[in-house]
Design goal:
Layout (H helix, E strand, L loop, with lengths): L1 E3 H8 L5 H10 L3 E8 L2 E7 L10 H12 L22 E4 L7 E8 L8 H8 L8 H13 L3 E5 L7 E6 L5 E3 L5 E3 L5 E4 L4 E4 L3 E2 L12 E7 L2 H11 L4 H8 L6 H15 L3 E2 L4 E3 L8 E4 L1 H8 L5 H10 L3 E5 L4 E4 L10 H12 L21 H13 L3 E2 L5 E2 L32 E2 L4 H13 L5 E11 L8 E11 L1 E2 L9 E2 L2 H14 L6 E4 L5 E11 L2 E9 L1 H6 L6 E7 H5 L17 E10 L4 H10 L5 E10 L8 E10 L8 H19 L2 E2 L1
Parallel strand pairs: 4-7, 19-22
Antiparallel strand pairs: 1-3, 2-3, 5-13, 5-14, 5-15, 6-13, 7-10, 8-9, 10-11, 11-12, 16-18, 17-18, 20-21, 22-23, 23-29, 24-25, 26-27, 27-28, 28-29, 30-32, 30-33, 31-32
Helix pairs in contact: 1-3, 4-5, 5-8, 6-7, 10-11, 12-14
Length: 687
């Protein structure tokens, strides 16, 4: 928002230079982005927070400046002379939707002469980047910048039956706005209408049919308070962002409606001539109760560490417009001014005191505690998981919890399938493309992969730990689960090497996940071939524990890879971390190193390709052979000499006795019956 330095000097008689003013306003939370010299004036570009609609005016900024300099604000004076007649004799006002328009005031000025504005008024608007139009329109814009209250002037002769009806638009209703564009309205848009048609879009822009022209003699001045959410929706749908909508969206002062209107009417009578009516048609069905908020002086220091005398706190709040209604030794009670929609609780008042005392004076210290700190019971496992994955070359990603709706991914089993009923949707998202609470970590992780590839980094290994959300019963908070997701693509790059030795594959990702589970001291997971929506058929597996599915792993499906414009294989996995963290840890066992050597036997089995190594190893352990230590996978072979549909799997068996060195004959007696059992169970041949 642009603020005129000369205008501020008129309101506050400030002694600060524009550059000093820039620094002081920035320090109290009203960042001044730039100061520019224009036509014997300086213009300050002030960044006003969205909850401070009261500062979208020169008077609002002047209030802040008055606190800084311990001065006062010279409120603009309005004096209407020679008023004559009742407004009700010339017009009528009806509000049909008081929820969207709690207050509407109309006042008439008869016999005006439309002409160019005087030089001082034109210069004041031009320095703020406002194009002068005519004296009446310029006065409404002047008051908007002065008091922050948008106003609108109608040509009374163009209002059918001289009626003002505040209502929602009817089906298929249209209006041509002041910019000459015909706009389609829907039933939820609030309009200002006469007896026949809409003449303005409430809080956004007036209509072309009722605008002021050189032939205008009688004007109706509108001053109103509109619901911020309604104006925001209408402006967004119509693609209109105006000075008026910008202020109504952030909340104007409902009690300042009549003051701004009187100021506007007085200036019109003074500059454009004419006679004003004696009163206004002020329709105000339900007045808002004044807010009362108390502050305990000692809480200022307790919350902010700032030691502020009570008298100084009172001065700051009074200068900002808060009225001290009750004063006690331990509590001060203030009436909140009608223009401060953002103040409701004690901490809000403390923030006002802290702003003007100085955020830079707030000290840094650790919060006091009478208890020794400790990690959450699950934090130890997650720290071990992070260390393990980092050691394997994975980087941790942190993505937004808000994503765009997508049906391309299977969810973790605990959430079931994706449907409109279980989505958690934001009613007022910051970004339209991120309007849903995420139910999977994979879209965010894939976006991170794409971001790296777009920047020339093709060898990427990422993991993310985060929360997922699914809708609960009506009136209840969403259900949450923690999840772990991994993604890998490109080549496997060794430490201190510039070039990858080989391409990453499914087993790199599987090994990383298994290493992470081992680091958490949990039992091993089971992997089985499965069909998963977002994974490539034949290169996908479900992850389970004790027969309960906890996630999936595999190569990203080509259809989804095409959407992200990936030109290299992407391997991804996602598991329900909450379920894993609920699994009981394995006991940590200690035993002396073996005194006697082991005997190793390698066996290559020719078997059906559908038989997995996990099934083989499980069958080996189920035999419970004496002196059997364990079996490990060596490798597979497919190619020349191997029938189609078959493959050769090599396993290494280890045998050892605790009291002696085993002889080959003893090992053979144990080993070959075990191999024969595998042959029978899996219809295998020994190569």
């Amino acid at each position: 928002m642009l603020i005129s330095y000369n205008w501020l000097r008129e309101l506050t008689d400030t002694k600060l230079s524009p550059q000093e003013l820039r620094e002081r306003l920035t320090n109290v939370g009203l960042a001044v982005d730039a100061v520019e010299e224009r036509d014997a004036d300086y213009v300050l570009d002030v960044e006003v927070p969205s909850n401070r609609g009261d500062c979208l005016s020169h008077v609002g900024i002047a209030r802040e400046l008055a606190v800084i300099e311990n001065a006062g604000v010279q409120s603009p004076k309005s004096q209407i002379e020679n008023a004559n007649g009742k407004t009700s004799d010339f017009a009528s006002v009806e509000i049909r939707d008081p929820d969207l328009c709690p207050r509407y005031a109309a006042r008439i000025v008869r016999g005006v002469k439309i002409a160019p504005s005087p030089e001082w008024l034109r210069k004041r608007l031009e320095v703020l980047g406002q194009r002068p139009i005519n004296n009446v329109a310029d006065i409404t814009n002047y008051v908007l910048h002065e008091l922050g209250q948008p106003l609108h002037a109608f040509d009374l002769a163009k209002l059918t039956e001289s009626r003002i009806i505040v209502r929602c638009a009817e089906k298929d209703e249209t209006i041509t706005t002041l910019d000459g564009v015909e706009r389609n309205l829907d039933k939820e848009m609030l309009v200002i209408a006469d007896a026949r048609r809409p003449v303005a879009v409430a809080g956004v822009m007036g209509g072309e049919d009722s605008e002021i022209s050189n032939a205008t003699t009688d004007v109706l001045i509108e001053s109103a308070y509109f619901d911020p959410a309604s104006v925001r929706r209408t402006a967004k749908l119509l693609g209109l962002h105006t000075e008026a909508s910008h202020r109504f969206e952030r909340g104007t002062d409902p009690e300042g409606v009549s003051q701004a209107q009187e100021r506007c009417v007085a200036l019109i009578c003074e500059i454009a001539g004419g006679v004003a009516t004696e009163d206004a048609l002020d329709v105000y069905p339900t007045r808002k109760d004044k807010k009362i908020v108390s502050i305990r002086p000692e809480r200022v220091e307790a919350i902010t560490s700032l030691s502020v005398p009570t008298a100084e706190s009172v001065r700051i709040l009074k200068s900002l417009g808060f009225s001290l209604s009750e004063e006690a030794s331990a509590r001060l009670t203030f009436t909140v001014p009608s223009w401060r929609h953002d103040v409701a609780i004690e901490e809000d008042l403390i923030e006002e005191v802290a702003r003007h005392t100085g955020y830079d004076r707030i000290g840094t210290e650790l919060p006091p505690s009478s208890l020794s700190g400790e990690y959450h019971s699950r934090e130890r496992h997650k720290r071990a998981l992070r260390r393990s994955l980092s050691a394997l070359g994975f980087d941790e990603a942190i993505n937004l919890s808000f994503i765009e709706l997508t049906n391309d991914f299977d969810l973790i089993p605990e959430f079931g399938g994706l449907s409109e009923d279980n989505l958690v949707t934001l009613t007022n998202p910051i970004v339209e493309e991120a309007s849903r609470m995420r139910q999977t970590l994979l879209p965010g992780l894939l976006n991170s992969i794409r971001h790296n590839i777009n920047h020339g980094i093709r060898d990427v290994c990422l993991f993310e730990l985060g929360r997922l959300f699914v809708a609960n019963e009506p009136g209840q908070l969403p259900r949450e689960r923690e999840a772990l997701a991994l993604a890998a693509t490109g080549g496997a790059v060794a430490a201190d090497r510039a070039q990858a030795d080989r391409e990453l594959d499914f087993f790199d990702l599987k090994g990383a996940l298994e290493a992470g589970v081992t680091a958490m001291n949990l039992p091993p997971l089971d992997f089985a071939s499965a069909e998963v929506i977002h994974l490539q058929p034949g290169q996908a597996a479900e992850i389970s524990f004790n027969g309960v599915r906890v996630g999936s792993i595999g190569r990203l499906a080509e259809t989804i890879a095409g959407q992200f414009k990936f030109r290299q294989p992407i391997f991804i996995a996602e598991v329900d971390l909450t379920t894993l963290l609920e699994i009981e840890e394995l006991p940590v066992l200690y035993s002396p190193l073996p005194r006697f050597p082991s005997i190793l036997r390698d066996v290559s089995l020719l078997l059906d390709r559908k038989i997995t190594v996990a099934e083989l190893l499980r069958a080996v352990h189920d035999q419970k052979v004496e002196h059997f230590v364990g079996a490990k996978f060596v490798g597979t072979y497919e190619g020349e000499g191997i029938p189609e549909g078959k493959r050769s799997v090599t396993l290494r068996f280890e045998y050892r006795a605790d009291d002696r060195t085993l002889r080959d004959e003893e090992v053979d007696e144990l080993h070959w019956p075990l191999v024969k059992a595998l042959q029978e169970n899996f219809n295998a041949e020994v190569r």
